[in-house]
Amino acid sequence: MSQALGAIGVCKVTSVLLEQGFLVSQPIYDHGYDLITDYKGTLKRIQVKTTSGYEDSRRSKLKFFALRGSGFQQLNTKKPYGKGVVDAFVFYHTKLNAVFVVPFEKLPRTQSVYFAPNCEWRDNWDVLRNPKRG
């Protein structure tokens, strides 16, 4: 299901990006990012990460994995993203229909990333619009 979940996330994020006024391209092969966005000439390489789960039973934190590798690989074989591979991450939570946009340099260097449902990164499209961020 993880490959299907990833494909769902890329499709949903593509749709939302188009609604937000971005042009969106998809690489022909996997080179470490899922999408390229173009907003008035500002290009960004985007990695989409998708989940439907929660970190705790109170549903106060959303957990995403921010590792490089195909969805069916074991976690211990996946690697963190290196500098220069992507400009920003877009995290999509399927059950909440929530999107979090984070510049690469603000992402913690851990395998898991946690968000409160209404944190500062939710729907933060300026990360992709601003040529100086991400």
Set out the fold topology.
Layout: H1 2-19, E1 23-25, E2 35-39, E3 42-51, E4 62-65, E5 67-68, E6 79-80, E7 88-93, E8 98-103, E9 112-115, H2 126-129
Parallel strand pairs: 3-7
Antiparallel strand pairs: 1-2, 2-3, 4-9, 5-6, 7-8
Please, how many helices?
Answer: 2
- Runs in which pLDDT lies below 50 for 5 or more consecutive residues are none
Ends: how far apart?
A: 30 Å
Number of strands: 9
Reading the helices and strands in chain order gives HEEEEEEEEEH
Fraction of residues in β-strands = 25-35%
Average pLDDT confidence is 82
Radius of gyration: 14 Å
The biggest beta sheet is recorded as:
5 strands, mixed
**Multimerization status:** single chain
Helix/strand-derived category reads alpha+beta
Helical proportion, percent range: 10-25%
Describe this structure in words.
It is a single chain. The protein has 134 residues and is an alpha+beta fold. The chain contains 2 helices and 9 strands, in the order H-E-E-E-E-E-E-E-E-E-H. The strands form 3 sheets. A 5-stranded mixed beta sheet has the order 1-2-3-7-8. It has a two-stranded antiparallel ribbon with strand order 4-9. A hairpin with a 2-residue loop joins strand 2 and strand 3. The longest helix has 18 residues, at 2-19. It is globular. It starts with a helix and ends in a 5-residue tail after the last helix. The mean pLDDT is 82.
Feature tags:
16% helix, 9 strands, five-stranded mixed sheet
Task: Describe the structure concisely.
The chain is α+β, with helices and mostly antiparallel strands. The protein has helices spanning 2-19, 126-129, and strands at 23-25, 35-39, 42-51, 62-65, 67-68, 79-80, 88-93, 98-103, 112-115.
